[in-house]
Design goal:
alpha/beta; Rossmann fold; 143 residues; 24% strand
Length: 143
């Protein structure tokens, strides 16, 4: 799918949210600026989240509980290993009572559940994003 604006990327996320259920894990792959956070904002809107959705770059996890189920928004970019994730107890949110969205899953691929929905986003133009949904392998990523 190709989106032509931030709003269309968010709309795609909202449409995806209609099909998500508690326990689902969505992993978002793509370079900086590919639209991962915008797609997540759309997922949040589709779930009925009322809070402002911000990037969890420095906190690693933002939790939103105002929607039809909790939304756990992860950003694993700053993690050095999956051990950090386990030490913080954040692995309990994957497959739990809410929907987990993980940006930068390649930083801790061993922590990604096998049944996670994998989405790859790429810039296709100044405002265009190419969104591929499928069972692609999580790419490992270095800083």
């Amino acid at each position: 799918m190709i989106t032509h604006s931030v709003q269309e990327t968010r709309d795609a996320g909202a449409k995806l949210a209609e099909r998500l259920h508690p326990g689902d894990v969505v992993v978002l792959e793509g370079d900086l600026g590919a639209g991962k956070s915008e797609l997540t904002r759309g997922i949040a809107r589709g779930l009925g989240v009322r809070e402002t959705v911000t990037s969890p770059s420095f906190t690693i996890l933002n939790v939103y509980e105002s929607g039809r189920c909790p939304l756990y928004h992860f950003d694993w970019y700053r993690l050095e290993s999956a051990d950090e994730l386990y030490e913080m107890g954040m692995d309990e949110y994957l497959g739990g009572d809410g929907i987990a969205v993980v940006e930068w899953p390649g930083r801790c691929p061993e922590a990604v559940p096998e049944n996670a929905l994998r989405i790859r986003l790429e810039q296709a133009g100044e405002n265009e994003r190419k969104i591929e949904i499928g069972d692609t392998d999580v790419e490992t990523a270095d800083h």
